[in-house]
Amino acid sequence: MLLCLDVGNTHILGGIFDEDKLIARFRYATHLIGTADQFGIFLLNILQAKKIAPENIHATAISSVVPSCDYTLRHTFSLYFDTSIFMLQAGVKTGLNIKYKNPNEVGADRIANAIGAVNAFPNKNLIIIDMGTATTLCAVTKKRDYLGGTILPGMRLGMESLKLNTAKLMEVDIEAATAYLGRSTRESIQAGLYYGQLGALKEIIAGYKREVFADEPVMVIGTGGFAQLYKDKSLFDVILPDLVLQGLGKAYELSLQNGEK
């Protein structure tokens, strides 16, 4: 079995694959990772709850955008698991042609999403939208050229910015707004967050289709914690909640084929 961990700024998304089948998934708050012992005990408890024996985990694949956690993760697996560790990072062969000016700047989560997307939908132009702490968009051509993307603050960052930088605005629940016009401060913030993201994404998608893909057919894929809020807004062609895990699993398979560790 393969244990995959996508370490984001807010959450660690974990998944366990038995061959190509995702048999378990879990989330853990990144700021609670603590020591190698604390995180190791958490993982052992998760495996016990999922009725998976730790010795059945033969390898671990990790994508991380939080460098301060990387040592703790490596130490965790050296202490509590007898597995190889694959880190998705610059220089790893992914099957993508990275066209970024500096390929080292592309986040591991964005690469994992792109790998998962091109394997799920080969020979298609793709726009991948990941709605997490940040909202990221990536453009990938049907030839597997990763062209680049767009990054904007996610909904929670927007809400926290309003709370921290104003005297009277408060924290609100992140949810689908029922109207453009809020009739209370709370409703007004929720409407601004929800429709602000929707409007920004529609504009950027339209720009990509014109400028990047010259109006060729494009599939728009949604993923990340907040993507489900827009499932009825005709924003995405498909929503794949586990896209980053699927991509990380594929990246690990490629590393075996290429003789990487």
From TrEMBL:
Quaternary assembly: Homodimer.
Protein name listed in UniProt: Type III pantothenate kinase
Positions that bind substrate: Y100, G107, A108, D109, R110, T185
Domain of life of the source: Bacteria
Origin species: Aquicella lusitana
Listed GO biological process terms: coenzyme A biosynthetic process
Catalytic activity: (R)-pantothenate + ATP = (R)-4'-phosphopantothenate + ADP + H(+)
GO molecular function, one term: metal ion binding
Classification of source organism: Bacteria, Pseudomonadati, Pseudomonadota, Gammaproteobacteria, Legionellales
GO cellular component: cytoplasm
PANTHER family per the UniProt record, alphabetical: TYPE III PANTOTHENATE KINASE
Cofactor: NH4(+); K(+)
Pathway membership: Cofactor biosynthesis; coenzyme A biosynthesis; CoA from (R)-pantothenate: step 1/5
